[in-house]
Amino acid sequence: MEFNFDFSSPEQNVTLPLSEEKGIKISIKRDDMIHPYISGNKWRKLKYLIIKAGDENKDHLVTFGGTWSNHILATAAAAAQFKFKSTAYVRGDKVDNPVLNLCKLFGMNIHFVTREDYKNKEELFQKYHQNDSSSFFINEGGYSLEATKGCEEIISELTENYDYVFAACGTGATLAGLAKGASKYQPDIRVHGIPVLKGGDFIETAVHALYPQAKICLHTNYHFGGYAKSKPALIEFIKSFCAETGILIEPVYTGKLFFAVMDLISKDYFKKGDRVLILHSGGLTGFLGQQAKFQYF
Q1: Distance between CA atoms of 175 and 89, rounded to whole angstroms?
Q2: How far is CA 187 from CA 155, 164, 181, 198, 214, in A?
Q3: What are the beta bridge partners of residue 169?
Q4: Alpha-carbon span 148 to 140, nearest angstrom
């Protein structure tokens, strides 16, 4: 089975007062422009998983996530586009929200499971799909060797050389791919990650499980309280950044990422003339669950 994954994203130079003052050159890899719902690293991580599912003659994508999961939504949209059935097992009590409603609109079946049952996803998959040979397992966030393969292509697409590449981290698959791509295409680029969960040191283990040779640096103090949590300083930064650049970022992933880079610039982490690439990994539906934190009027 063949699939058309004809997509690319531009590198956009951005001039901000602080970076200009410090002599730091900022560029953004605009993966958010790939697709409105299968955006950013979600496209990258699903690409080779979907190809593998097709090669194995599977027609039912089964995945996992939380109630506001960008990954679940991306899987639902990709399944509809490439003619798969889709199912998601969602952690926690039954809820109704805009993200899950979009998933249903794309034809996805949603099942809520207890947090205890959710802990072992492979076991959950076997429990409900052991007699269904058409089902294809996709881990939470797309975490897999296939995801790493898709994300390493980000570096192969770059038209400029950079000193640093920064990305937000949830599972570690994107960072593993960036590190692998760097080793092939830009060996001098330094790969840095901003974990969006509290206690993000586990990301290092997750990255090395996918790519043992990975050379990465994690900045674990920009989680703002944990996954999908935020503080007024983050919200104010996002509002200012969006108004100043016209580039939309959100509180769960990209807001923390851009905040971290700008904070590091303010602390003279970089030297004058350094070129920093920031991966905009999409996920803009993250706004839907946090809109109450923004005071627009």
Answers
A1: 25
A2: 10, 11, 9, 30, 11
A3: 195
A4: 14
Tokens of 81: 């586009």
Ranges of each domain in the chain:
11-36+151-293, 41-142
- Whether the model pTM is above 0.90: yes
Amino acid code (one letter) for 59 = D
Tell me which amino acid residue 226 is: G
The full length of the chain comes to 297
Q: Are 11-36+151-293 and 41-142 equal in CATH topology?
A: yes
Buried b (16+ CB within 10 A) or exposed e, 89-126: bbbeeeeeeebbebbeebebebebbeeeebeebeebbe
Q: Which fold has domain 11-36+151-293?
A: Rossmann fold (3.40.50)
Strands (E), the chain: 11-14, 25-30, 60-65, 85-91, 109-113, 135-137, 164-169, 190-195, 216-218, 275-280
Q: 3-state SS of 124-177? A: HHHHHHCCCCCEEECCHHHCCHHHHHHHHHHHHCCCCCCCEEEEEECCCHHHHH
Q: Which fold has domain 41-142?
A: Rossmann fold (3.40.50)
Reported as a single tens digit per residue, the pLDDT across 15-61 is 999 999 999 999 999 999 998 899 788 999 999 999 999 999 999 99
For 187-202, write each residue's pLDDT tens digit.
999 999 999 999 999 9
**Beta partners for 60?**
85, 135
